[in-house]
Design brief:
Layout lengths: L1 H4 L3 H9 L7 H10 L4 H4 L19
Length: about 60
């Protein structure tokens, strides 16, 4: 499970036992992505972000 999610084994054990809660959205996304959770269960957070065109950079003098 740790290899799939990128979260440490000790952190996952604490989650399972209720000693820790998963409150950081970044860790939630890592966990769901590592488990290949389908987007219909996770909501829009795992859908690819719409890429907006980059604004041209201006030179600083």
């Amino acid at each position: 499970m740790a290899l799939l999610t990128g979260l440490s084994q000790s952190f996952l054990s604490m989650l399972e036992s209720g000693q820790r809660r998963l409150t950081n959205i970044d860790r939630i996304i890592v966990l769901l992505d590592g488990l290949d959770a389908p987007a219909d269960l996770t909501g829009p957070m795992l859908l690819p972000a719409q890429v907006m065109p980059a604004l041209p950079l201006q030179a600083v003098s």
